Amino acid sequence: MGWGAWHAEGAAALVADAGTALSLTWVDGDGRFRGGRISAGAALQRRSLAQATALLPAPQAPAAPMDWAAADPWPLDTETALQQGCWRATAAAIALGWRELSRLDPDPRRRLWLTGGDGEALAPLLEAEGLAPQWAPDLALQALAALPAVGLLS
């Protein structure tokens, strides 16, 4: 997907694919893969906490994202605190990756791309941190569709 983001704009990119797992992929301004990170997504963090601890409750279904504008960032009940913690930890991992990349690759054209099942829900949290993610729900399919045009797939 990193190549797809680079191909779309011809600029360096950090792609955050947020779903069961969170993968961060860095592609430089020449379209080269420069590295990545993989961690648990928000829902997997939540399920893992319930499975690995005796006193934390199982996740309520569905584990839908919150209305971040209305949500208290410091909730008083356990379930909301778990949801807030896992969603905010995922957003923080993206924001940290972006800020670190800003020091390594100062290209002002560099873009943060957000895709995956949780991407749209994470966008408001990232925007609240001053980031401007490009929401691209079909980034993987767009990248595959572009391969024949550049001679990489016939």
Low-confidence stretches: none
Task: Please tally the helical runs, counting DSSP H or I stretches of 4 or more residues.
Answer: 5
The helicity comes to 40-55%
The rough form would be described as: elongated
Neighbour order of strands in the largest sheet: 3-2-1-4-5
Briefly note the structural class of the backbone: alpha/beta
Global mean pLDDT: 85
Largest sheet: 5 strands, mixed
Please provide the ordered H/E string of secondary-structure elements.
HEEEHHEHEH
Gap between N and C termini? 19 Å
Number of strands: 5
Roughly how many Å is the radius of gyration? 17 Å
DSSP strand (E) fraction?
15-25%
Topology diagram in text:
Elements: H1 2-9, E1 13-18, E2 21-27, E3 33-40, H2 42-52, H3 78-104, E4 111-115, H4 119-128, E5 134-135, H5 139-146
Parallel strand pairs: 1-4, 4-5
Antiparallel strand pairs: 1-2, 2-3
List key phrases describing it.
154 residues; alpha/beta; 5 strands; five-stranded mixed sheet
3D architecture notes:
- The structure is a single chain.
- By secondary structure, this protein is of the alpha/beta class.
- The protein has a domain at 87-154.
- Helices cover 42% and strands 18% of the residues.
- It has helices spanning 2-9, 42-52, 78-104, 119-128, 139-146, and strands spanning 13-18, 21-27, 33-40, 111-115, 134-135.
- It has a five-stranded mixed β-sheet.
- Helix 1 (2-9) crosses helix 5 (139-146), helix 2 (42-52) packs across helix 3 and helix 3 (78-104) crosses helix 4 (119-128).
- The longest helix has 27 residues, at 78-104.
- The protein is elongated and about 50 Å long.
- It starts with a helix and ends in an 8-residue tail after the last helix.
- The mean pLDDT is 85.
